[in-house]
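Researcher: I'm preparing a figure for a lab meeting and need a structural model of a single chain. I don't have an experimental structure, so a prediction will have to do for now. The sequence is pasted below. Please return the structure as tokens so I can convert it later.
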Amino acid sequence: YQQDGRNDKAFQMCEQLRQFAPENSQYHMCAGTLLTRMNRIEDALLAVKQAIKLEPNNANFRQIYAQIQERR
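Model: Understood. Here is the structure written out token by token.
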């Protein structure tokens, strides 16, 4: 869905994955990326913050969080 530019549908799938496996940080990052593309910056930050909480030593997550913050 992402490749076809169907971000809403991709986000729905990502949300299902987050509900199924809330401990998977990659699903939260996926949601954050999609929400950013959908210009839902505050929601994106919350999703990425959850990914960081699950993987606090992941420098890539922190970098993405900072990049999203710059879009505020």
